[in-house]
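For consistency, the fold was encoded as tokens, as this record shows:
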Amino acid sequence: MNHSRLESLQCLREEIGKVLVGQDTLVEKLIIALLCKGHVLIEGVPGLAKTLAVSTLAQAIHGVFRRIQFTPDLLPGDLVGTLVYNPKTGDFTPHKGPIFANLVLADEVNRSPAKVQSALLEAMQEKQVTMGDVTYTLDEPFMVLATQNPIEQEGTYQLPEAQLDRFFFKVSIDYPSFDEEQEIMRRMARSAPVMKVEQVLDGPAVIDLQSAVDEVFLKENMEHYILRVVDATRHPDNYGLDFADCIRHGASPRASIFLALASRAQAMMEGRDYVIPADVEAISLDVLRHRVALSYKAQAQGMQAEDLIRRIFDVVDPA
């Protein structure tokens, strides 16, 4: 792998780490998703630095950052923009919304109704926004980070599984360790916390890194490994797994595509130009956890999709 690219990735990780404590997994997955031009759904209780992580990443890559607080009264126009009538000229002028940014934080995305969520997901998928009869292409790099609060369901609108499937990763984050929280407290428990972030990349450099993902070699046996893992979520009986009645439906073909992409990016992060089984396993939970739908029976028993995915990796042979 190109040494300068590896150095750039390392500098990016280190710069974000100067501000963020105890969320190494989140930072790693955000960078991988950025490399793969993917979008991330982040699930965690309030106060775990989700907003800080995204804003810090934006500063480090010199990108435009926008935060949108999703509420029940939010309208699609509040997100993508609208046409404003000028009575003097009789013309309509486009007023672009906050979606026109490099990194967009959709905070508590499940608090808005389906029409707002669909407007966001259309921009994510098509990388463009239409106002009136004009279509505007969103600037590259473009990435949406949406957050959900797992402990509060009142006044929320559950994301349909077809919409969840559009997210590259679903990352679940937890509380920091005792020592990490002590360091957070020392940094933040002051009237003016010091959180200066230096720019280490710019837009063209990020786009160059994104194109470099295609150069990472994925052998045919690794392709077959990924396909078997995804197939095991649909037909567990074929792999000697006894939880077919626990899965309502398995992962879609997007899972195979995103596993291959993310594995390449994971290998890049490790300084390799080829994928090994450990790369697939390292990103599997984040790619698959929102694509494997549990049956009502499994949910009633308190099972998690992650439990079944781990069992799949226990039996599916990478060879």
